[in-house]
Each structure stands twice: as C-alpha cells, then as structure tokens.
Target: Fructose-1,6-bisphosphatase, cytosolic
Amino acid sequence: MDHAADAHRTDLMTITRFVLNEQSKYPESRGDFTILLSHIVLGCKFVCSSVNKAGLAKLIGLAGETNIQGEEQKKLDVLSNEVFIKALVSSGRTRILVSEEDEDAIFVEPSKRGRYCVVFDPLDGSSNIDCGVSIGTIFGIYMVKDDHEPTLDDVLQPGTQMVAAGYCMYGSSCTLVLSTGTGVNGFTLDPSLGEFILTHPDIKIPKKGKIYSVNEGNAKNWDVPTAKYVEKCKFPKDGSSSKSLRYIGSMVADVHRTLLYGGTFMYPADKKSPNGKLRVLYEVFPMSFLIEKAGGQAFTGKQRALDLVPTKIHERSPVFLGSYDEIEEIKALYAAEGQKE
Model:
C-alpha cells in the first residue's frame, strides 16, 4: 500500500457513497436499507467518541445494574445500548431490535415501523474498557418480507437469512467492517472529516493461517477434537512450524485480526459451558456471515454456524471460525471423533 500516495488522495470513498453505489445496482430499491445503515454508522461514531473520552468523563465503572447475561454493566454499555436503540428506532426502518443488554426483544411502535430487524451487541468486550484494549459493536440485519404483525419468529431465523452484518472496532483507530451480502469491506473513521473512508476494499481471509486464538485457561474442560487441534497447532507432526497463539478476549478484536491475517478463532463448548459462551444471534451469526463472505468458514462442532436455527434470542453456541483450510481440519477432527462414538 502506498501510504504517501494515499495521503494525497482526494477521491475518497466514504461509507455513505459506497452504500449508495451498492443501492444503485438494485433499481427497485427504495433506499430504506441505506437509511438504516446511516443510522447504525451514526451510532458507531457516537460510541467511538464516548469510548475515547470515557476516562475523562468518568463513564468508566459500573452502572450498578446487571444485564440479562448476569454480567455487571459498565456505564458505557448502558450508554451504547441507549444510543443504538434510539438511532435504530428513529430511522423509521426497523421492526424488532434484539440487544445483548436487554432481556426482551424491542418491538418498534407501528408509527415508526419498517422492514428490518436488527440484532446487536452494543459494546462487546466491555470488561476491557478500563485497560484500553479494543472493544466493539457487532450487528446483524434481517429483512421481513411481508407486512404481518411482528413476532419473535422474525428474528429467530438461521444466519443464512441475514441480509447484512458488520462490526465497528474502537481501538487504535475506529474501523467499521461491513458486508451487505457480496464481499466484505473495511472503513476507517477519519476524525478530521467525521467520515468512514474505505481503507480495506474486498477483504479476503487467507486460505491458511499461522495464528490460533482461544482461551487456553479452559483447556482442562475441552472436548477431544478441540484439544487435538490446539495440540497440533503447538506441536505439528508434519515438520511445519508451530502456530502462534493470540488471544485478546475481545471478540471483535480477535475476529478482526483473524479476518485480516488468517488463522482460527475458537470459543468451543466445554464441560463448564456445554453450549459455548457466545450468543448466536448477535455474536456468532454476524461474525460467521462476515467470515464466510470473505472466503472463510464458521463451524459449531456439529454443523455450519449459519445453519443454526435459534429458539431463544439469547441462545448460545460454540463456534470455530477462520481460514477455510483450518476449519476443514477442525471439521475432520470432529467427524473422526463422531465415528468413534
């Protein structure tokens, strides 16, 4: 990448321009999706600004309430959740919202109702705020085909039905990664313009990777295929060099690195959490959607992650996602274990 040339570029592809270009490919489009995305982008900018000044504004620290997952909420969690709910409802394009922070789904009042259901984690990795580690927002979007009265079934759909997904990472820079169904593109916030600029066009995950990402503190509780794969990463028997372990503990940051550099990100089921820890609707699905659109794979240990059909809005699932060949290896280990049983 020629950074000197980039510094003098005047033809900037902003996220708004990018989405409008995509919209123009569909003559029947009414622009609803574009409006919805612009409201999500606004929410991301607001949260980015709040994260940057959290220490100064005394926003860090517990808000005193506990969310549906039993995690103590940070002030920034509460703020981010409110910001996204207000931004999404005011777009006039949403029907149902599912947030990690709220026990129940939010049904938008009829006067502000639209065709889209948005599932999101407003601030993933928020336990890392105090130490300056990257955190982020994850979102997925479903479209409701007809005009029936909204029900939970509109969001309890497999990930294959999502029309778009993305995340915004608040770290050394503010990066928004988005797929509207064809390809994956990354945008970086230019603070001087207040605009997201296309910096990572058409991201493709490498077919193989040299990094694995997993919480090894849970190793004693893992199943056999997970333990075998990690063992193989550390002590390969084919003479190849060992893989590097990189685990941040913030899903957005770990998946972002996996997307750009290749490798595997794993949160497997174990004896302590037989259903895994990550939530299907607003963590597993959006990230699996992005990884697949970039040429990778996502697997639960039993099936393709996007084929899951959730029965509850806060349902959890194990997940292995990353480079195509690496996930093939994990699938083979699970298949071999299944034959033994």
Summary: Residues 32-52 form the longest helix (21 residues). The first strand starts at residue 62 and ends at 66. The two ends are 51 Å apart (CA to CA).
